[in-house]
Amino acid sequence: MSTAMSPLRLIVRQQWMSLARERRLRLLGLLVLALSALALFDAALDARRLENARIHDTVAEEAVWEAQGEANPHGAAHFGRFVYKPAAPLAVLDPGVTAHLGSTLKLEGHVQNASRFRATDGGAALSRFGGFSPAFALQVLVPLTIVFAAFGVFSGERARQLAWQEIGAGATPWQLMLGRFAACAAVLLLLLALVGVLAALATVPAWSAAHFAALGLMLAAHGLYWTAILGVTLAISAWSASSRGALFGALAFWIVTAVLAPMLAPMLAEARHPTPSAEAFEAAVTDEVMKGPDGHSPRDVRFAEFEKATLARYGVRHIDELPINYAGLLFEHGEKATADIYNRHVDRLYDGYAAQARLALAGSAFSPLLALRPLSSSLARTDMEAHRHFLAQAERYRYETVQALNRDIKLNRKPQMREYASDVAAITRGIAFAPQPLALGELLPRTTVPFAALAAWVGGALLLMRLAARRLEGAA
């Protein structure tokens, strides 16, 4: 066993020396690392600035709400409140679709504001866009660096002569392939470790076991992705007769997997599972809200039936005989009805997004990046599911706040009162908005398929390497 490992160690050492001698590769690697570090710390500074602004705005908004004093509760419900989405700590590494969705949300009675559904303008298409970020560097630039570093490992006259010499010295082509692969993979592992350290330093306030577990899984996913790219590039190098052919082949592979497939897959997903625009979404909800059971004079019919049922429930003949304020009861009923309609449309909207995501993930058969992106953004809590989780919490808070105001009218406004005012801040003081991120345990089931896809790509890359090694053996 030791004699079998000795040539492998020599091959790894020789490949390390070869990589170290390549000045252009050193410069390219340092450039990618520097860009990643700059993007990471710029994102960290931006996240800190946004968090400070969120805290300031939350305090200011609370002061405005408290300053209302005595006011009409229903008017206060329309006045509304603003809530602010906390930044996900790992967004510094992978911002996902965060920049396209916003972080400020107005909550008011009767409606779930259209601004909160800006994602209806994008859906899966949001994954096609985004500025420079650490995720872009790790998912696009690092694979390009791998291509430039590994395309010439076996191709070209000089590399082939060195390979024949090593085979003549007793190394097998498979050992040659594994040695080159292990040497390059070790460099990538070092880069991954540096990225992990930088990401940890950029997210110190969020340190916890769950945080490090999510970060570790993100790094592992990127490691699998890079390994697959490396394996395929080495196989292309071994199969190519010339350095130029190897470079063109490896670049074509990178263009397809890192550029074309990630761009085309969301487009196809949207075409297959279209979702409404923000305007169409609001129009559909409004149309259903305004229509009653018979479609003719809907509000009169609907509320006449509600009035009849209410009088029967309390055993009285006239509204004035009710022990509660009928207007407040009507507000409660109307709020529940509109909330149910909105929630049903929102569920349908996000079902469409989920269908788009599943179809885009199926494209990972052609590009490992289509598996990595949803996996990474899910672990970073910057995907559509994380945003929906925040919106669901905001909607619960909105509904509880509005219904508390309606309940105050129902219980305390007397029939003879022409105007009614109450301390709206006191009414809602016991209702707090403290959004919590998705727990890691809730995320893990969604990572199974993407991880399996990345593992399949690594297995496929190793198979290609094995076949390429046999070709080298035949040529020898």
From TrEMBL:
One of its GO terms (cellular component) is plasma membrane. The keyword Cell membrane does not apply. The chain crosses the membrane at residues 136-156, 177-202, 214-239, 246-269, 449-469. InterPro entries: DUF3526. GO terms for molecular function: ABC-type transporter activity. It comes from the Bacteria. Keywords: Membrane, Transmembrane, Transmembrane helix. Pfam families: ABC2_membrane_2, DUF3526. This is DUF3526 domain-containing protein.
